[in-house]
Amino acid sequence: MTQDEMKFAVAQAALKYVVKNTIIGVGTGSTANFFIDALATMKNDIKGTVVSSKATAQRLEGHGIKVFDLNEVEAISVYIDGADESDGDLNLIKGGGGALTREKIVAVVADQFICIADESKLVAMLGSFPLPVEVIPMASNYVKHQITQRIGGAPKVRENFITDNGNLILDIKDLKITNPKAMEVELNSITGVVTNGLFANRGADVLLLGTSNGVKVVTI
Ligand code: 5RP
């Protein structure tokens, strides 16, 4: 199976978690795009969606699926999104596509978070993928210094990239993430950080992992 076939398979498997007649949270990225295309087959069964990026809104609307502002909805039954890495406890690194802040907001509001990913994303310890941090542009040098002094790793501004919120992304390479929950909180305590791509204090509830032997359901 190719990586895309695995992404397609997990996107199809995620349809089982879609709660009819409710609002569905939809994430960002190539795996989420497979899910959006799958969701189109049951668009009349849901009330609509709340999204984590402008790109996702555009793709959903292209399928004729209603996109609500988060402030217009009472609840989100389930959030379905990909990840850059997951460990066995379903702590995640997200933000490879730069949509981490809106992704984290939708994830915390949703009753359930279903992560969809191919098997290359499952790791023993998070951190091989550079950890994205969204920062207010005027604070980027300050935040870089604070990260180097307090947390370690090698933060670098993502080139030619501005988030949907008008901010920059720092990608931190060479991090040893032994305690994802603590590091998530520590990074967010630096003034100028909007949020970081560790999804540990609100990790996934279920990981649908695409493997060459089919879709594995991982829970903790
Ligand atoms: C975007 C994300 C994505 O979920 C993550 O980058 C995975 O993307 P893909 O499904 O393309 O591998 O966090 O900000």
From TrEMBL:
<keyword id="KW-0413">Isomerase</keyword>
<dbReference type="InterPro" id="IPR037171">
    <property type="entry name" value="NagB/RpiA_transferase-like"/>
</dbReference>
<dbReference type="GO" id="GO:0004751">
    <property type="term" value="F:ribose-5-phosphate isomerase activity"/>
</dbReference>
<feature type="binding site">
    <location>
        <begin position="28"/>
        <end position="31"/>
    </location>
    <ligand>
        <name>substrate</name>
    </ligand>
</feature>
<comment type="pathway">
    <text>Carbohydrate degradation; pentose phosphate pathway; D-ribose 5-phosphate from D-ribulose 5-phosphate (non-oxidative stage): step 1/1.</text>
</comment>
<dbReference type="Pfam" id="PF06026">
    <property type="entry name" value="Rib_5-P_isom_A"/>
</dbReference>
<feature type="binding site">
    <location>
        <begin position="94"/>
        <end position="97"/>
    </location>
    <ligand>
        <name>substrate</name>
    </ligand>
</feature>
<dbReference type="GO" id="GO:0006014">
    <property type="term" value="P:D-ribose metabolic process"/>
</dbReference>
<dbReference type="GO" id="GO:0005829">
    <property type="term" value="C:cytosol"/>
</dbReference>
<dbReference type="InterPro" id="IPR004788">
    <property type="entry name" value="Ribose5P_isomerase_type_A"/>
</dbReference>
<feature type="binding site">
    <location>
        <begin position="81"/>
        <end position="84"/>
    </location>
    <ligand>
        <name>substrate</name>
    </ligand>
</feature>
<dbReference type="InterPro" id="IPR020672">
    <property type="entry name" value="Ribose5P_isomerase_typA_subgr"/>
</dbReference>
<comment type="similarity">
    <text>Belongs to the ribose 5-phosphate isomerase family.</text>
</comment>
<feature type="active site" description="Proton acceptor">
    <location>
        <position position="103"/>
    </location>
</feature>
<comment type="subunit">
    <text>Homodimer.</text>
</comment>
<protein>
    <recommendedName>
        <fullName>Ribose-5-phosphate isomerase A</fullName>
        <ecNumber>5.3.1.6</ecNumber>
    </recommendedName>
</protein>
<dbReference type="GO" id="GO:0009052">
    <property type="term" value="P:pentose-phosphate shunt, non-oxidative branch"/>
</dbReference>
<feature type="binding site">
    <location>
        <position position="121"/>
    </location>
    <ligand>
        <name>substrate</name>
    </ligand>
</feature>
<comment type="function">
    <text>Catalyzes the reversible conversion of ribose-5-phosphate to ribulose 5-phosphate.</text>
</comment>
